[in-house]
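Below is just one:
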Amino acid sequence: MKKATNLLSLLLAGLLLASCSNAAGGQNETSPADTVALPSSSESAVESESETTYITDDLPDEDFGGYAFRILSCVFYNKELATYITNDELTGVPVDDALYNSKTNIEDRFKVGISWIETGDQDAGLNTAKNAINAGDDAFDILIGHDTNTVGLGKSGLLRNMYDIDEFNFEKPWWPNHAVESWTVAGKMFAASSYISYCGIHWTRAITVNKDWAEELLMEIPYEAVREGKWTLDMLNTLTEDVSYDVDGNGKMNDKDKVGFTSGTQTWYCLQEGVDLPIYRRDDSGNIYLDLDVDRADQFLEIMRTLTKKDRYYSSGDFGVKMFEKGNALFAYTQVGDAYDYYRVSDVRYGFLPTPKLDEAQENYINCCTDVPWAIPKTVMGKQQHIVGTICEAMSAYNYNHVLPVYLEGALKSRAADSADDTEMLQIIADTRTIGFAYGYGLQMNNILDDILEGGQGAASYFKSKEKVAEKALNKLISSFEDMEIGRASCRERV
């Protein structure tokens, strides 16, 4: 639990020191943290602060002589993606100011200038990247875009293999194991999900609970069950039973009623990941193969058909988010980012829980996420590769240590006195977030249980009907990576 306790101590410090977010600090100022005992809610602010340690990036300070570090980004969900990485000015918004401090810290430490290149929508960004790399044009240092687009670009041979970048230390906590494993094929990884941005946690699915409604019901929020590994879908099923009611009296559930459970987008795919039902698995050697635990899938489907009965569940697109925001849902399965963007400015007093396990036999909690991964074009080489690798590693480390706690503090609505349990829950959620292999590479059956729920089929028959096509797509992907040779680009090195 070393990574988890480090994150928790950083978050607790963020809750205490948010007002000091304008102070930029170097990355080599402290030594790596050892395991720290989880503070109790009774510990003082000073004690929590004093125990906070930052994890160093182990990079030497270097002078890169004013190197212009350029980020190629596209618009996603109406926001320029580079703004999740850097900010050019202090605004008084804690996360924005933390990103500004990150930018200035890296620029001062390595004597570089960080800028981004705006490309409009996702397709424009992808086409700009492809055209520049194919022409051997040194137009940018990294690109950032939608997960399936960026990860998929690696299949074309246009990106640097992340394992060839000596500056990257994948043992550090700003490289989540889930993404390193998910996006590695045949020993190659062409896109990265690190804490160079906070998108990965922003779009992590988790459970939020309406604390005021829970108190009215005399319901104990299952924090202790989470700690004991007993937080399951069956428990969620039980807690949502007989709590919904038809406010408008029209005889059916809608967004004006009070429901036990609601959800946002991509619910069933993400729950499928959360209950450990991947379609693609890896053997002990890291080889990927197609598989579905049919019995486990049927168990999941049976529970979900009860949990989503019309008398306790309602969701339609973003209605799940809106219902919880209005206080009309006891539990919601949405994104951590929905708390940050909507719930914290609402009147709802909310808490966090990880995605429930399928059963107590499941070893770990798993919280599905999407991300906007970044990648390095093959036009980056030689000394330039060293510079780019250094900046990306240092920025990932700084943002893990200094930006992530500020973001999570914002998701908690700055209620330190009311959020000790929720702080711990967010720690668990952040450290167990997972990106599905199939989703990242856009493979067949990444949404199999969603399709089964909609169609009313059994898991075994549906899986068999799709298996051959899915295996063919998987084998094609693996072969393309095995045969790929990433050579030198034709452009001259820019240093």
Observations:
- Confidence is low (pLDDT under 50) at residues 15-50, 487-494.
- The two ends are 41 Å apart (CA to CA).
